[in-house]
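okkk here we go again. third time trying to get the fe (ii) ion bound version out, last two times i messed up the smiles copy paste (missing a bracket lol). double checked this time i swear
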Amino acid sequence: MDYTAESKYVMTEQSPPKANQRLAEYLRVNHAGERAAQTIYKGQLAVLKGHPQAAEIQHMMEQEQEHLDTFDTLLNDYKVRPSLLDPLWGAAGFMLGAATAALGPKAAMACTIAVEEVIGTHYDRQVQDLNNRHEEPELVKTLARFRDEELEHRDIAVEHDGRQAPAYGLMKAIIQTGCKTAIKIAEKI
Ligand SMILES: [Fe+2]
Ligand SMILES: [Fe+2]
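finally!!
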């Protein structure tokens, strides 16, 4: 028996082609991001229930739930494991949402501007990359729709005076740094 040939086969099986690994990272990080987004709005709602902004936050939370459910299904379809830190992303999102909302409705909206800007750009990069590679046209349509919805969330938060929050620039910078770091981690782990 040719053991060399067999072990080569096993090695090939264990190392998926590059495109698959990239796609796995895309789906994993998107699922983690939507988990965090959904819980950010949940955390904001827990604090801002009854405020005039609650209806908009509820609307955004429902869209994040649909995004999350979509990536749940896609992880199953593509046989990709979720981030091992999934519960952490949920807890971090809730804390971020609740903490910013505790500073007031404008600070909650500032958080939304910061987060959605990063997520919108993140989805746009994936859309462009997959388009350039002529891969996954159906997924690209979904990602493009989600990108547009995230940017709508950003616009809603601008309309609700997120940019007038106290220490807006500093808060935005801190939150965006946190988001970008989380994205890098969730792609891999
Ligand atoms: Fe989303
Ligand atoms: Fe969003």
